[in-house]
Structures are given as structure tokens and as C-alpha cells.
Amino acid sequence: MNIVCVGDCGVDHYLPSGQVYCGGITANFALHASVVFPENDSITVISAIGNDDAAAVVNERLGNSRIKCRLTAVDGASSVQHIEIEADGEKNFVRYDEGVLRYFHLNDQDKEVMAASDLRVVPVFQQIHGFNEEVIAIDNAGLTAVDFADFAQHPDFDLLDKYLDAIDVGFFGLSSDDEHLIDVIEEKADANHKLLAVTLGPDGSIAFRGGDTFSCAAIPVGEVLDTTGAGDAFAAGFLSQYCYGSNVGASLKKGAALAAEIIQRIGAN
User: Which of left, alpha, beta for 229 (phi over 0: left; psi -120 to 50: alpha)?
Assistant: First the structure.
């Protein structure tokens, strides 16, 4: 299987400690995928990084994996997510600086790599909507999975409607209190015959496909240290199962298991 991950690669800057780790939804997903997808699967990352110290962190982390990197080096700053961790381990995204991603465009070879993918994985969030539109507009013969990463803060159903025809699997990180959002997501899945999965933190996860509903409890852990990247881990686990059998229930369990691992340590990958 040829997996192509397109989007953000940068660093997570933890406050107040100043610790810096490789991060970004795309980098996180690809690194988790490199562990849970079969070894003979090809995993490629397409993104842009700057020419700063953060770029060195990204290059080192991805370079020490089996991931094929198509990282365009641009004069400027790499993307940075500033994070605080609450006493219960819950992440708090303080500020996001998109850096050179703001101006990044795919070249012709990047587009060819994407078009040849069996699975392409794309994050959607406000700061890079223009780039998202460019990516999703490219036809590919395989599956397209989209992580609507900031849907809890910015629920944009017009945007979801815009992308639904082009995607096969959608991921949303919400809470059980977001009942209205969950209900509408279920309606969209039913009406458009799409698979839409919602993670609910300690309340597990739920997925809708056509008229079917699937649910999975969260896996208990001893101590939650850092929830950063839990959704990215979940998506990697889910898709590693779903792409080899389309069993939604088993896919939710695989996603839950990988998310449970990542929240027990500091860092998203």
C-alpha cells in the first residue's frame, strides 16, 4: 500500500518548560503509521519546513524512521504549536504559528505522488485552508482520509459539505458534551454514505457509516501525561486496520489502543 500524508510538519513547543519535539498532525500520523502499518507499505510525507532550528528537529525525527520525506525547504520559520499541559494531562493549544506553510504550494511531482496513492491523509484547520483545497482537489484512485482538526473550536459544516464528495473517511475530535455537533455529523454520514469517526477523549469513540453506528470505549491507563497527538495516533491505528478489511468496530479498537499508548508519555509521537 502506498500511503501519502500531506500537510503540516513542525515542532511542538511546551510551556513553560521550553521542551521542543517534532510535531504537526501530518508528521505525527506518519510516524505512528510507520509503526502500525505493514513494513512493506510505503509511507511518504509531503510538507514544507523552514531553515531554522525547528527544521533540524523535524529532519532528525523523520529521518530516523522508514518514512520517505518530501519536505520543501523554504526560507523562513517552520510551523510551531505552543502547548501547555494541564494537571490531568490534557493539552491546551496556546498558539499556532504556521510559518512557511502559509505560502506552501505543491509542485508537479508532489501532485503525481499524491495521485498515485492508495491512501492519502490530510489535516484540515483554519490556518492552512487554502493549502487544503489545493490538496483535496487532486484526484487519486485510493482512499482519502481527512482530519478536521479544529472542528471542536471552529465547527464549519459548510466546509465539511464542500469536502464530503472528495473524502472517504473523516475524523473529528470532540467531547460528549458536543451532542449537537455529533448529531449533525451522524446526519452527514448517513445522507452521504461516508465513514465519519469521532473521538471523545475518556468517553471513547464513535463512528457513523451509512445508517450504522459503531462505538468503542476508551482503554483505561494508569496515568495520562499528555494528550497531544492522541487523535493522530487514533487515526493511524484506525486506518491501519480499516485499510485491510473495512471492519469499523475493529478499527475503532485499534485506534483506541494506539491513542492509549501515546497519552502515557510526553510528546505527540
Answer: left
Reading the block at residue 220, the C-alpha cell is: 483505561
Query: Hey, what CATH topology would domain 2-262 get?
Result: UDP-N-acetylmuramoyl-L-alanine:D-glutamate ligase (3.40.1190)
Torsion sign across C-alpha atoms 251, 141, 33, 85 = negative
Contact 216, 205 (CB under 8 A): yes
Q: Is 30 left (phi over 0), alpha (psi -120 to 50) or beta?
A: alpha
Residue-wise pLDDT for 155-178, tens only, equals 999 999 999 999 999 999 999 999
Secondary structure class of 250 (helix, strand, coil) = helix
User: pTM value?
Assistant: 0.96
Average pLDDT over residues 5-14: 97
Residue with cell 471492519: 247
* φ, ψ for residue 41, nearest 5 deg: -75, 145
**Burial track 177-199 (b if 16+ CB lie within 10 A, e otherwise):** ebeebbeebbebbbeeebbbbbb
Of 96, 97, 46, 103, nearest to 74 by C-alpha is 103
Cβ–Cβ < 8 Å for 148, 170:
yes
| Residue ranges of domains in the chain | 2-262
Count CB-CB contacts under 10 A for residue 172.
25
- In the numeric block, the cell 451509512 is attached to 210
